[in-house]
Amino acid sequence: MQDQLSRVFAALADPTRRDLVARLTLSDATVGELARPFDMSVQAISKHVKVLQDAGMVSKRPRAQTRSVHLEAEMFDLMTAWLERYRRQAEERYARLDTVLAELNAGEPQKGTTHDRSTDLR
Questions:
Q1: Mean pLDDT computed over every residue of the chain
Q2: How many CB atoms lie within 10 A of CB 87?
Q3: How many whole angstroms separate alpha carbon 2 and alpha carbon 8?
Q4: pLDDT digits (tens, 9 = 90+) for 28-70
Q5: What is the C-alpha separation between 33 and 28, in angstroms, rounded?
Q6: Per-residue model confidence (pLDDT) at position 73
Q7: Residue 40: how many CB atoms within 10 A of its CB?
Q8: Mapping DSSP to helix (H, G, I), strand (E, B) and coil, where does residue 79 land?
Q9: Environment class of residue 65 by beta-carbon count within 10 Å: exposed (0-12), middle (13-18) or buried (19+)?
Q10: Which site from 12, 97, 98, 107 is most exposed, i.e. has the minimal number of CB atoms within 10 Å?
């Protein structure tokens, strides 16, 4: 699993590949269709698609006379599970910190709640 995650996160490190993934969430597309909005060649986009394919994030499927690129949702499930574990741990740490801070604040007078009249006489 870790090697797969490394490939997925490495693939997503590139903004062009993130844009391709975002586009593929709408529908499957050919490499030519994916290349249209970019200022790069179809071959360059094809290389980006190959990186995503090697990471298991996309696959190529026959569609009429062409091959379309298809987003593989299972990789997002893998990433989500990995991220969720660390999100839960972080939330638990923040909850403990909130408890400690609330206990510390409960033992101190709140600023601005008491008024020192000796300063009014100056």
A1: 87
A2: 11
A3: 10
A4: 999 999 999 999 999 999 999 999 999 999 999 887 778 899 9
A5: 9
A6: 87
A7: 11
A8: helix
A9: exposed
A10: 107
